[in-house]
Design goal:
Blueprint (H helix, E strand, L loop, with lengths): L1 E7 L4 E7 L9 E5 L19 H7 L3 E5 L17 H18 L7 E6 L1 H12 L6 E7 L9 H4 L8 H5 L9 H5 L8 H17 L6 E7 L9 H4 L2 H4 L5 E6 L12 H26 L1
Parallel strand pairs: 3-4, 3-5, 5-6, 6-7, 7-8
Antiparallel strand pairs: 1-2, 2-4
Helix pairs in contact: 2-3, 3-7
GO molecular function: hydrolase activity
Keywords: Hydrolase
Protein name: Alpha/beta hydrolase
Length: about 290
């Protein structure tokens, strides 16, 4: 079941979509965070059967809360310039507190899933927010630590001139994908451009504070980030996490969840999250 939700982000509304299993309580919550120029519906694309993360995860017993980040959806009018990453992290944690109260989920096991700029937010929130042991894992796609483009190119994120950077080859997407994706496209708030330009300096400072398991995924045809083996060799060492995985998604462009590889990618992420649950269970049993 998928319903529309509006949560308190700290004096402004954060809209989104909540997917839950039919007829039973979910076992864990995935918080899905979209990239620049998109909305929460990025995770519910249906141009191909089985493509929607919300639908797939709910079928497997998960709840998925896909939120419109600050500056998008219902908060766009109040926050036309968006927010800087630390402020977005605070807004996210505030919204999850509101969610916990409304859905009696104070003890919820939480996972963060971020795409592109949403990956930056997921990593920032993992490093800077208090989770009281409830954050079990983070998965990001389309987000690394070294850009493959110049600052001038990066400053044009969201512009039509760079559509090929986000999409890649047309054959990577099902028929109708571009038409259906029009419903989830949105203007990029100016503060996100500032944050994107500052990411290569910000990430090394926040990475050591990330202690939960993290999975980075780069699409085979990713063009925004350097992701060959030598370029990401030092990435796991920058985090304090015991478990950091760097993976590639074949037959995919930057917007993985809108393409033909979406289901394959989503299943890989859910498998990683299941492993995080198992690891926490086994470590708990040993320490007990």
């Amino acid at each position: 079941m998928i319903t529309r939700v509006v949560l308190d982000g700290g004096g402004f509304p954060l809209s989104g979509m909540l997917a839950t299993p039919e007829g039973r309580r979910w076992h864990s919550l995935i918080v899905a965070l979209h990239g620049s120029g998109m909305r929460a519906g990025y995770f519910d694309c249906r141009s191909r059967s089985g493509q929607s993360l919300l639908e797939l995860a709910a079928e497997l017993g998960w709840a998925v809360l896909a939120l419109d980040r600050p500056g998008y959806g219902d908060s766009a009018e109040q926050l036309p310039e968006g927010q800087h990453l630390p402020d977005q992290a605070v807004a996210l944690r505030t919204a999850l507190g509101d969610f916990a109260e409304r859905y009696s989920a104070q003890e919820e096991r939480i996972f963060l899933l971020g795409h592109s700029f949403g990956g930056k937010l997921a990593l920032t929130a993992a490093a800077e927010c208090a989770w009281e042991g409830r954050l079990f894992g983070v998965a990001v796609s389309g987000c690394g630590h070294r850009y493959a483009v110049s600052p001038e190119e990066l400053a044009t994120i969201g512009g039509n001139e760079n559509w090929w950077m986000n999409w890649g080859k047309l054959r990577l997407y099902p028929p109708g994908a571009f038409r259906l994706s029009e419903a989830v496209v949105a203007p990029v708030p100016s503060r996100e451009v500032e944050e994107a330009l500052a990411w290569q300096e910000r990430f090394p400072r926040l990475a050591p504070a990330i202690r939960t398991s993290v999975r980075f995924t780069f699409a085979e045809h990713e063009r925004w980030w350097l992701h060959e083996e030598r370029a990401v060799r030092d990435l796991p060492e920058m985090l304090s996490s015991a478990h950091v995985t760097v993976d590639r998604q074949p037959h995919a462009g930057h917007n993985i969840s809108l393409g033909c590889a979406a289901r394959s990618y989503h299943l890989r992420v859910l498998s990683f999250f299941e492993e995080c649950l198992l690891e926490r269970e086994m470590v708990g049993e040993v320490s007990a």
